[in-house]
Each structure stands twice: as C-alpha cells, then as structure tokens.
C-alpha cells in the first residue's frame, strides 16, 4: 500500500507535474507563470502530495491571501482563497484532498488569516462534499461564473 507525504511545492522540480495534474483534472487551466506567481506570493500555501513508492506528485492545492470584507462580520480582513485543488483520479478517496486543505488552513493561520473562501462548480458534488466536511458553507451562487455557463457556489469557512 502506498504512503504519501505532503510538502511545499518546489517551482524548480514540481511545476511540470502540477501543471499536468491541473490539465488532467480540471477545465480551468493556467499558464506556467500563474503557478509560479501564486507560489512566490505565498509559498507555504502551495502544497503537493507525493506517492512515496514512486516519488510521483499526485495532487496539489494552491492558495492566495487577499484583503477584503469578511464573510463573518469581521470587517476588512485577510482572507484565504483556495485557488485550485486536484488529485489524480487513481489517487482519489484516500484523504489526500482533505490533508492538502488542512495544510492550507495551517499555513493561512500562521499568517493570521481566520477565514477562507473558494469557488466550486455547482455540479461538482465530490468537491462540495469535501468542503462541507471541512466546515464550508455556501454563501452565494454566482450564475454563469464559468466560461461554459455553469454557476459557481461561493463557499466560505472560518479556520
Ligand atoms: C474533489 C477532489 C479534489 C477530492 O479529492 P480526494 O483526495 O478524492 O478527496 P478526499 O479523499 O480527501 O475526500 C474527502 C471527502 O470528500 C468527499 N468526497 C471526495 N470525493 C467524493 C466523491 N467522488 N463523491 C462523493 N464525495 C466525495 C467525501 O466526503 C470524502 O470523505 P470520505 O472519503 O470519508 O467519504 C478530487 O475528486 C478531484 O481532484 N476532482 C477533480 C478536480 C476538482 O474538482 N477540484 C475541485 C475544484 S473546486
């Protein structure tokens, strides 16, 4: 049985793998500079999972710290934004996304961030379940948020 380690993304060695996972798993794909920019702004918020038996990168999460109005009545504050998370299909349902989300929360809390938000396709029940399990609630629905016309749930959580 495989075991996994969660560690910080390294732009020199991990970028190809992360871009490959992103293209495999999500319709929202980004140019290379986007990944490095996200990393440079908040290195501890960009984490990956590695299969220790093959040394392969199999999942990632990337986050950003933004300033904005609190969804919980804290006024103007720092907010964590989960930009993207994906796990390669053969590695799903092993708790890796949950571990990556918790690693993101940990990194955010160390930067004094107390709430997070994200967008998710309204049809993406797997991801919605994951986020609900982590305490996220739906704050609003943004109609036609995605380029193919699908709506996004904007989900928020205190961390
Ligand atoms: C969504 C995704 C990241 C979940 O990754 P994962 O590593 O399989 O998730 P975990 O194993 O940590 O699952 C944690 C919980 O999420 C929920 N969940 C995950 N996959 C699910 C599925 N296919 N169906 C229903 N619930 C699911 C469950 O509540 C699960 O807990 P459980 O296994 O104890 O029931 C993964 O399916 C994925 O990469 N999907 C494609 C990319 C994507 O949609 N990213 C999110 C964009 S907003």
Instruction: Give the ligands present.
Output: coenzyme A
Average pLDDT, all residues: 97
With helices defined by DSSP (H or I, 4 residues minimum), what is the helix count? 4
Q: Per DSSP, what share of the residues sits in E-state strands of 2 or more residues? A: 35-45%
* Oligomeric state of shown chains: single chain
CATH class: Alpha Beta
What number of structural domains do the residues give?
1
* Low-pLDDT segments, ≥5 res: none
How are the strands ordered across the major sheet?
A: 1-2-3-4-5-7-6
For CATH, the homologous superfamily is named as Gcn5-related N-acetyltransferase (GNAT)
- The first-to-last residue Cα distance is 32 Å
Question: Tally of extended strands?
Answer: 7
Q: Structural class given helices, strands, pairing?
A: alpha+beta
CATH architecture: 3-Layer(aba) Sandwich
Helix content: 25-40%
Order of helices and strands: EHHEEEHEHEE
Question: Please, could you describe this protein's structure?
Answer:
The chain has 159 residues and is α+β, with helices and mostly antiparallel strands. It has helices spanning 15-25, 32-41, 96-110, 125-133; strands at 4-8, 47-51, 56-69, 76-87, 115-121, 137-142, 152-158. The protein has 4 helices and 7 strands; from the N terminus they run βααβββαβαββ. It has a single domain, classed as Gcn5-related N-acetyltransferase (GNAT) (Aminopeptidase). Strand 2 and strand 3 form a beta hairpin. Strands 1-2-3-4-5-7-6 form a 7-stranded mixed β-sheet. The site of coenzyme A has 20 residues, from strand 4, helix 3 and helix 4.
Highlighted features:
159 residues, single chain, alpha+beta, 7-stranded mixed β-sheet, Aminopeptidase
